[in-house]
Amino acid sequence: MRFRSKAFGLHLLGSASALTLVLGSLYLGWYRWPGWYLSSVLHVVGIVVLVDLVVGPTLTLIVANPRKPRRTLARDVALIVTVQLAALVYGTVTLWSGRPLYYAFSTNSLDCVQASDIDASEIALALRQNPALAPHWYSLPRWIWAPLPDDPDAAMHIVNGATFGGGKDVIDMPRYFRPWDDGLPKLREQLMRLDEITYLNKDEKHSLRLRLAADGLAPNQRNSLIMWGGSRRVVAVFDPATLQLRALLKPDVG
Length: 254
Description:
The protein has helices at residues 2-29, 35-38, 42-63, 70-97, 120-129, 152-164, 184-190, 202-214, and strands spanning 100-106, 109-114, 142-145, 178-179, 224-229, 232-238, 245-249. The chain is of the alpha/beta class and 254 residues long.
């Protein structure tokens, strides 16, 4: 039993070290709040953690028989590690392709823009036309303004494509992105009182009102805007005077 326990402990330590390195790097670089929540990645992380920290070491505990020939034991452990590595690679690739690259204000909402939302052709256009805000493989999340283009025909084409399907939205076109500060006057026009936000139900508004008051923020001022990430959303709260971001709150009830 001592041999099995030692093998289990060493395997668990190695798996935990590798997992911490990979997930820690992704979290510190791209998935800090609200990135992990809006990107809906917890199910991917859960699968990787289950395979690498539970299944892998447990299988080693089972196969680590001290009477087994060392060559056979090494083969069995190698097979387990191979499965673990496959799960880790799957998780890493999935998280990398879904990493948040921008928090974009456009028209009347905020959106989390993930790497998978921007195709290669748009990246190439952005590198030529808007290199300062174009995404690179090393780019960390940036807050940007994504206005429609000045050309009315191009703007209408984007609006129609995003509204009726089959086309990209402007938040997926980094060639049109502009610095965050340039969009603050437009952002101010779109801020709402908490009670005016139609995407929140009565209970969510009540819960958020209490949390805002507890944090010293005014729930009755025009200081809030929904931020979307797929089907998930948070409420972004700004200082109405300076437009500095004060809070990003999940509309939880209870």
